[in-house]
TrEMBL record:
GO terms for biological process: carbohydrate metabolic process; pentose-phosphate shunt. Its EC number is 3.1.1.31. It comes from the Eukaryota. GO terms for molecular function: 6-phosphogluconolactonase activity. It comes from Hibiscus syriacus (Rose of Sharon). InterPro entries: 6-phosphogluconolactonase_DevB, 6PGL, Glc/Gal-6P_isomerase, NagB/RpiA_transferase-like. The lineage of its organism: Eukaryota, Viridiplantae, Streptophyta, Embryophyta, Tracheophyta. It catalyses: 6-phospho-D-glucono-1,5-lactone + H2O = 6-phospho-D-gluconate + H(+). GO terms for cellular component: cytoplasm. Residues 76-305 form the Glucosamine/galactosamine-6-phosphate isomerase domain. Pfam families: Glucosamine_iso (PF01182). This is Probable 6-phosphogluconolactonase. Belongs to the glucosamine/galactosamine-6-phosphate isomerase family. 6-phosphogluconolactonase subfamily. Pathway: Carbohydrate degradation; pentose phosphate pathway; D-ribulose 5-phosphate from D-glucose 6-phosphate (oxidative stage): step 2/3. Keywords: Hydrolase.
Amino acid sequence: MASSHLYFVAPFRTLRSSPSLPKSPRFPLHVSRSSHLLTHKTLAFSTVIRGASGSGRSSWRAMAEKGKGKVVVFDSEEDLSVSLAKYTADLADKFSKEKGSFTVVLSGGSLIKSLRKLVETPYVDAVDWSTWHVFWVDERVVPKDHDDSNYKLAFAGFLSKVPIHPGKVYAINDALPAEGAADDYETCLKHLVKSNVISVSAATGVPKFDLMLLGMGPDGHVASLFPGHPLVKEKEKWVTFIKDSPKPPPERITFTFPVINSSANIALVVCGAGKAGPVNAASGNGQNSDPLPVQMVSPEGELVWFLDKDAASKL
């Protein structure tokens, strides 16, 4: 395998070993041979280090750390998707062995596209899909066959291609209005907590999902938690609703930050130059007086940013 380049972006600190990033990953990593260095001007305070390759070595092409967060910068979205698949498969393997189940939360947008390598060799045949329980961090209150449905997007690009039991895929009740759909989804979560399908945070008492896969909007929103909206301050509910989303469709349900931040692992997957500003703000370099929603993502466990070079261009 050709060697790759690792970009350690200031002001982040160098990653050390972490229990969620196995030293001897179960699944092999295949990295594209194409590599385009970021310019010295873009990464004026960066250190460029030649990466290592070979069996049993780290799967990451770039890593850095800021507090609990680690940043991984890829030359392309294709390279990002390769590493994201491996990261997800390794966590699924870890939790499945530890507790017999794997609870994963999906978002909409381009996230499903970035998961496409999971439905290919070696993962589609090697992953123990029987242990998976699938949830959504937010959903548009539309029928499941509507083009705006996150469920439809996930089904077409991912769920229909892997043997996850349909009874372990927890979509919203789209026959209910937004408020009712949010209450119903929270009731579902409470039932699964009581039956020990979903773990509980010892610190907060709210659901603790094994992995939450988040995207981010160009305005810095995550889930359906938008800049300046009162819902970003919601602390009591696990699932709430919005009827005035600044991004259509207006009616949605969404996990709140207490649930998001109780996660054991969060992957923030961000691609494109149009999102470079919020990424820069989240790194601590922004000038916003009020934090963007993405800046409020701070899980109890591990946070890993998966960025393509365009999303990282302002770091």
